[in-house]
Amino acid sequence: MNTLWMFPGQGSQRQGMLSTTALSLRKQVTELTGIKLEDTDQGYMDSVQIQLSILILQLSQVDEMKATGWQPNLVAGHSLGVFAAAYAAGVIKTTDAIKIVALRAKEMQNAYPKGYGMGVIVGLLRNEVAAIVDSEFDEKAPVYVSNQNSQLQVTISGNIAGIKQILEKAKQKGAQKAKLLRVPVPSHSPLMRGVAKELTDALGKIQLQKPTCIYLADYNGHATRSVEEVAYDLGNNLAYPVYWDVMMDVAKEYLMDSAVEFSPGHVMTGLLKTKLPDMRTISMADMGLDDAKFLLT
Questions:
Q1: Parallel, antiparallel, or unpaired: how do β-strands 74-77 and 214-216 relate?
Q2: If you compute the radius of gyration of the chain from its CA atoms, what whole number of angstroms results?
Q3: Distances from the Cα of 71 to the Cαs of 63, 98, 109, 282, in angstroms?
Q4: Fewer CB atoms inside 10 Å of the end CB: C or N, the chain?
Q5: What is the pLDDT of residues 238-264, one digit of tens each?
Q6: Residue 5's closest CA among 297, 193, 216?
């Protein structure tokens, strides 16, 4: 069996999602960072809480899957999900992942504490969205084209006022959907270069291992088994668009026959199904470990 493990980022967090997560992981977060995870709607108004909670939720599920004997052939993380993907590939240790993600979240929040975020446009091609962004660009309210989730699903990142203007223009151009995302920072744009440098410096101080499987990188969409390229992706993907659509095309070339999406949510499964409708997919957010094992078997 050739299996892809997919790890989503922010956006699908929900109250109570850590209810079955190993208590030891929650304690580790507090011991390493001084942060007590709340797992509440109020807590998930904070980017640091969101990122650390999603990270340990995914790490816990990886541990559970591996404990039953399953291993990935390919891993792909979307934005924050790159850290769980790297963990699943044996590149980074639990403690280092927690420390780096805590730094990532804090630096992102400090860089743009308010007035910035992301939006999504569905139904227009990337070049059509880019044309709108270019025509409306304002240095006082900058907006950039960011992630390519599918051929007709593109995100934009930047100033909220500028994003709202672009979303309205996209609707006028025929977009099926154009809305703000639940991401309070301008991720995957040049605005995050300063944060990327801080992460790169921090990653340079920890020991990373060569991946045990194929790793699909956000920043260029390519497949790699190089620890240097994985490290670059972990540190710098915030300053680049996530080329998820390309990543799934590359995964297809490896003749995978099943895909597992780790919690929270099932957005990645939906995107994959539009590209590979006959693919066997398993969403951990919708079923327990026993059900997932049964379907894989």
A1: parallel
A2: 18
A3: 10, 22, 34, 14
A4: C
A5: 999 999 999 999 999 998 889 999 988
A6: 216
